[in-house]
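Weekly puzzle thread! Below is a chain. First person to post its structure in token form gets bragging rights.
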Amino acid sequence: MSQSPAVSVLLPVFNGIRHLRAAVDSILGQTFADFEFIIIDDGSTDDSVAVLREYAQADSRIRLVSRPNKGLTVTLNEGVGMGSASLLARMDADDIALPQRLEKQTAYMREHLDCVLLGSAVTLIDPDGLPIRQMCSEQTHEEIDHAHLNRGWPIVHPAVMMRTAAVRQVGGYRDQYDTLEDLDLFLRLAEIGKLANLPDVLLKYRQHFSSVTHRRYEQQMKIRQAIFDETYTRRGIAAPPPIVAANSGPRHRYQQHRSWAWAALKAGNVGTARKHALATVRQAPWRGDSWKVLACALRGH
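Winning reply:
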């Protein structure tokens, strides 16, 4: 590794023990090795710190910080401040980076100096790691920015590589938009440079069961609307209608299983679809749509 690494990889951790080793191993096993690995433990109460210390002792590229809990946005900005490389890659403690992720993203950023943020196609996986579907097909700046402005989801935060100077130039992550701090940052970065996605699948993005309460859901909708209001005002363009929540209550577990089953079936991941269709029926056998998704999953289409 060179004296000044080419990439700073930033991984915030809070009680991430279940999938932590897989996430860390996926970064340490990259084909591109010229990076520093900034890992900030944000006051975990599980065994995350012990595992991270083990890794830090074994690999000198790891810069481990462990301190009391301060929240994700503060932790991300702390990591941005620590980065010594010109490129900053994000990672989360429950996802898996494919081996060539850093190599391919670094090559693109070196060839496209106007690009300030680069994502990739990703594969959504279920809590146990089974594939659900692929997403983030938008590739050009125009496609990505349009999707962001129209409430789409064209870039996954733990799949991005950004120019460290650009992130600092726009002020980093903003705490007032906590829970959607990535969307706010991406919209501001799009105003000083280009955004792009590589067509390659470079991350397995793990999905989890929602535990968002009615109050928290409403708060997230207000934050999203505030981000859009500010962005449209800042850009001097007409604002869209306010966001109307289709379902303001917490999502039941069977609804999440059903959603994953349909998505997996549409993507051709029949085994995943059957698993979640069966779980849907077990948890909501009185509902006709539970049996419908099971029948389609067993049929395979």
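Puzzle host: Confirmed. Bonus trivia for everyone else. The CA atoms of residues 8 and 88 lie 5 Å apart.
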